[in-house]
């Protein structure tokens, strides 16, 4: 983004401020960023449409596109002005081997082993994640940990059936797509959504009970998180950022 923006010939180098950070391998259906562009004396400000077309022209080799642009107040900040962020995790059930994942869905979903999941048990477990909690058990330890509060408020956790990409081509194979949607004002940096998904899938596989989710929250220790229960990044999408 910053390389593309430098082609706009700003007077001062442009820095993008992104609303949300994600792990490598995670996707974004829609993300937000803000930037300040100072043009040479006598040149008018960019029109929104002109800015979109120019940036996308210089981004054409990258898997990213600018969808819209708005002029905002100087007080606006893409990260700190956000009211909430919504993530979706896509699950594929019915695969007995990873080779059965449709080619158009590879790296865009997770097909947990063990066949179909107990979705009602997962929905019961998801209730324990709602509200304000200390999510220490669901985060990884890093250099930022001592300076970041582990308390977050989860506003929404939904688990619902979904259609796959071009699903009418393989519906006869008995594959089922499900979406897990999480909404919060902010999430802990690094893996908290993937850990929540992994724990809920473990419930669906019968490896954990719904009450185990409550117990994990109460322990408040990342070392207590079940080994190998973290969901891979491929199924996670930043869906939207609300202001």
How is the largest sheet built, in terms of strand order?
2-8-4-7-6-5
CATH-defined architecture of the largest domain? 2-Layer Sandwich
Structural class: alpha+beta
User: Radius of gyration over alpha carbons?
Assistant: 21 Å
Can you offer a commentary on this structure?
- The model has no long low-confidence stretch (mean pLDDT 90).
- This protein has 243 residues and is α+β, with helices and mostly antiparallel strands.
- The chain has two domains: 1-59, no CATH class; 84-242, Alpha-Beta Plaits.
- Helix content is 19%, strand content 20%.
- The strands form two sheets. Strands 2-8-4-7-6-5 form a six-stranded mixed sheet, covered by helices on one side. A two-stranded antiparallel sheet has the order 1-3.
- One of its GO terms (biological process) is tRNA pseudouridine synthesis.
- Belongs to the tRNA pseudouridine synthase TruA family.
State the main characteristics.
two-stranded antiparallel sheet; Alpha-Beta Plaits; six-stranded mixed β-sheet; 243 residues; 2 domains
List the helices and strands and how they pair.
Elements: H1 2-6, E1 17-18, E2 27-28, E3 33-34, H2 48-58, E4 84-93, H3 119-126, E5 131-134, E6 151-162, E7 176-184, H4 192-204, H5 210-219, E8 236-242
Parallel strand pairs: 2-8
Antiparallel strand pairs: 1-3, 4-7, 4-8, 5-6, 6-7
């Amino acid at each position: 983004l910053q390389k593309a923006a430098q082609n706009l010939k700003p007077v001062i180098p442009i820095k993008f401020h992104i609303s949300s950070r994600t792990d490598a391998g995670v996707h974004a259906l829609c993300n937000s960023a803000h930037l300040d562009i100072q043009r040479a004396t006598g040149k008018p400000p960019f029109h929104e449409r002109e800015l979109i077309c120019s940036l996308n022209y210089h981004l054409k080799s990258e898997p990213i596109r600018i969808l819209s642009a708005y002029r905002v107040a100087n007080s606006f900040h893409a990260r700190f002005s956000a009211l909430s962020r919504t993530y979706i995790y896509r699950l594929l059930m019915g695969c007995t081997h990873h080779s059965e994942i449709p080619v158009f869905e590879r790296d865009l979903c997770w097909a947990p082993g063990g066949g179909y999941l107990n979705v009602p048990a997962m929905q019961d477990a998801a209730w324990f994640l709602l509200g304000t909690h200390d999510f220490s058990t669901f985060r990884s330890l890093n250099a930022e940990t001592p300076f970041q509060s582990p308390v977050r408020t989860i506003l929404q956790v939904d688990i619902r059936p979904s259609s796959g990409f071009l699903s009418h081509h393989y519906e006869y194979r008995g594959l089922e797509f499900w979406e897990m949607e999480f909404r919060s004002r902010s999430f802990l940096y690094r893996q908290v959504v993937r850990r929540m998904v992994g724990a809920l899938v473990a419930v669906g596989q019968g490896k954990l009970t719904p009450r185990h989710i409550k117990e994990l929250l109460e322990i408040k220790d990342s070392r207590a998180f079940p080994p190998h229960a973290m969901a891979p990044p491929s199924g996670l999408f930043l869906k939207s950022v609300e202001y």
